[in-house]
Write a sequence for this structure.
């Protein structure tokens, strides 16, 4: 199977001179996470939701972030050829932690392929595998956790110290009651590093910021099931629980991809 068979053709694009506000509208309207950036018809970068959010929180308070040009927030675009094999690209994306690749043919942009596209395609090719890979095979076991009554400052410190983007929130019995992500934190308090260094940071609790709508998955859920959940819910990580509902791990879509590619 080649990248050509699974890529999103004729992707939504944006110009490097367009505003971040326009980029935000496109990402939201089309329910996508990445936008290839062009300049005079040539690919010059890629803008992700995370890049845009970082630009928002790092912009000068006197600036109107939504009027800033895309070129100030974009990252260099990682590319792949349309004829490359999915299996080889799956390994590359999992190892390098790449969310999406711009697809080129004869040097021209023809599409975009995301981790979710790769993951869904990979699960189709792995249907005959015995036994199927599960959340238990892919997850990070015993992840750090938070309590809802803890201050948000504790969550920020834990994320920075552990270099993680998502943390489960649990109750007294170890049952998952929510998740808090770096994006949640940035939307509420801005840049985490700046918040840590503030003399009098705004006081919030974890429960003020966490997402309570996240549904945990069982450790015996197949990676194919996880792939569809990631695609439908547009989330990046899921808490994993045992048959008693207690937290045993956390699995991201990159974890799932690595489990299938190994």
């Amino acid at each position: 199977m080649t990248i050509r068979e699974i890529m999103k053709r004729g992707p939504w694009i944006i110009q490097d001179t367009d505003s971040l506000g326009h980029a935000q509208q496109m990402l939201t309207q089309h329910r996508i996470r990445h936008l290839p950036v062009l300049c005079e018809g040539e690919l010059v970068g890629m803008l992700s939701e995370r890049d845009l959010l970082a630009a928002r929180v790092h912009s000068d308070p006197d600036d109107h972030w939504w009027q800033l040009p895309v070129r100030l927030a974009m990252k260099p675009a990682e590319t792949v050829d349309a004829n490359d094999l999915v299996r080889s690209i799956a390994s590359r994306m999992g190892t390098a932690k790449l969310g999406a690749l711009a697809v080129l043919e004869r040097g021209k942009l023809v599409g975009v392929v995301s981790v979710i596209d790769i993951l869904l395609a990979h699960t189709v090719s792995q249907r005959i595998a015995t036994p199927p890979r599960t959340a238990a095979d892919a997850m990070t076991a015993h992840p750090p956790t938070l309590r809802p009554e803890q201050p948000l400052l504790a969550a920020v410190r834990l994320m920075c110290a552990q270099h993680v983007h998502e943390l489960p929130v649990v109750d007294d019995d170890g049952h998952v009651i929510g998740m808090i992500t770096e994006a949640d934190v940035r939307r509420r308090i801005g840049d985490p590093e700046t918040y840590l260094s503030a003399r009098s940071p705004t006081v919030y609790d974890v429960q003020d910021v966490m997402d309570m709508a996240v549904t945990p998955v069982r450790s015996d859920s197949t990676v194919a099931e996880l792939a569809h959940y990631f695609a439908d819910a547009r989330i990046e990580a899921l808490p994993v629980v045992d048959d008693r509902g207690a937290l045993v791990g956390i699995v991201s879509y990159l974890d799932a991809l690595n489990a299938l590619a190994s």
Notes: The chain has a mean pLDDT of 86. The chain is about 40% helix and 25% strand. The longest strand covers residues 42-48.
